[in-house]
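A common beginner's mistake is to predict each chain separately and then try to dock the pieces by hand. The better habit, illustrated here, is to supply every component at once so that their relative placement is modeled jointly.
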Amino acid sequence: MTDSTRLDVTDIQGFVLKGYNFPYARYLFLELLHARDAQIFIGQVLQYLTTGERWDKKPITTVNIAFTHRGLLSLELPEPTLLSFPVEFQQGMRARGDILYDTGKNSPEHWDPIWRENRVHVWLAVNAQTSAALDHQCNVLLQMMDQTRGAKLLQPQDASAVFIDGKPTSKEHFGYTDGFGNPDFKGAERNCVPGQGKLTMDGNWEALATGEFLLGYADESGELPVAPIPHLLARNGTFMVYRKMHQNVATFRNFLEEQGRVYPGGKEKLASKFVGRWRDGTPAEISPDHPDPAVVADNDRNTNFTYGNDLNGLHCPLGAHIRRGNPRDAFGFNGELVNRRRIMRRGLPYGAYVPEGLPVRDEDEHGIIFMALNASLFRQFEFVQQQWIEYGNDLHQGNDKDLVIGNHGGQGKCVLQGTADPQNPPFLCANLPNFVQLRGGDYFFVPSLTALQMMASGTVDPR
Amino acid sequence: MANQSGHIYGLTILSPILESNRLDICHATELRWYLASLPRNHTSPFAQVSSTHFARLVVMDDVVFVGAPAREEHLKSRYLVFETNFDGDLNRYLTRMAVEIPELVNSVWKHCVGYPGLADPNAFIAYMKKCQIETTFFFADVNDKTVQQNLKALQVQSALSRFVERNQGKPASEVQKSFGVLLKRLAEAPDPLPGGIDSEKTAAEDRPYDR
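With all components supplied together, the output reads:
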């Protein structure tokens, strides 16, 4: 008997199956031109495309591609196929602004022009080990665009790991170590890491259903996710949200500094309460009183915790960033209420990193490129964003939003639960500004290799 | 008793809607339009019946056939569904509806079969009880506190969080003094009006902590 969930990794884009962990990336945002030429261009990109195949040795660069609905329209996919995509993908992220609370300072009028104008058809991503390799690979792709006349570059977006002492790190601009863990799902190559799949009744962790992250497979409810027709176009593909999130670094550092002077546990402990991790990455749930490098370094421990014994938020506040993004068992029912709300995160910082203590300005170009993959943008990403990031009721936090990335507009409030211990008192942050501001983005379909071949050859047949 | 959760009463009413072929607009449609025109904020008629936690009125045309293997079934009539959670006794609540919001009651139930009007409140109560079905399930947030207790608690919570925001980190004696002022202001504050402490109507007078 063959294992029904063993995935054909050579048919799935590598970006979907693993975080590459390369220090450099450039996301080329393209407009497709005449459909026939665009098909030829896609056919040529295919030879460079990075699949989920296991690497004996890490390549120097990777190439991946994804399309907005406008992009697929421009490729002249058959109408029945175009209309069969989930509504939220057809509408695109901008049109979903009210649902996502992309309003006020996060509304499209504050976005970069390419996103305001709704012109992006293609996300063509290159990750690289060196900046020279990045330039080289991008030039090859740009030449292909010129030769085929199938696409034109609207704008590149560079991203890169934060370098400290010449070495790439997992830090982001606010100083937190980022990128711990992603949900495990069945069929993916690696073993299930404790804390990263779903909780079993006996308190262990197992992989989530494949259909939570890939189209064409059963999801946690035993159903196939909503997907376009034909099946062959959808299978082994998924959906991605791309959000460029500008970070107001000066505002955040000043806020942390000021509040850290008032908070009796001190600045770093306060920082750990905001996110649920100390800035070195130690989970507050495991080590609420001090960072613990041994935990951070241990992959069996750094994501291996639950909130069931901390329902009052004394270790990790109820509204801390990582508790919002993935509440685990915080809502009871052994964590089952979160199993259909998981997202796979990818992303890298952009802009120059300014070390703490040096002068820094909000308006300089720095932030994080947030990308998340899921089978249903509506059920997974949009739900998490609306209910858990921009609202607090499920977490018993009323109208309060995520302190770090919430769209507060100066009115935000956040309660950090505490005890009678003078070092761990309850603390309230009020009049919160936006530490993070949206600069644009969109929803993308990340096709399988089979689907890309069909698109390149004009053989997508919905009948 | 299933209609009761602690001191909260859950009333569920199904009133059959009149059918008439002679009208330009059928009763159900007219009723839907009327319901859609009702305000849902603190000016809602149910804010006047101040023991109401929440109320919901909806026109139910039929049960929806979701496809095989479900069995296709139909209701004998269209129904008005009226659900409300309130404090205290059923007779008293229905009497309050008859006395305090007669216009709403008439405008809604005139579209329903057998509605006796409000001339005799006892006839109205008897009619409603005849349409009553058992409430088997309460909204998860029902907490066995009265509307006034909940509003007051929200007022205190809101005042307290502003107090903490303004006083955390200050010396204990100063905090204690301010706390005394807060308690006094809260004690003197008028009870919040139904419809929510953040409604415009109550905003100015019910936020003693803002002064």
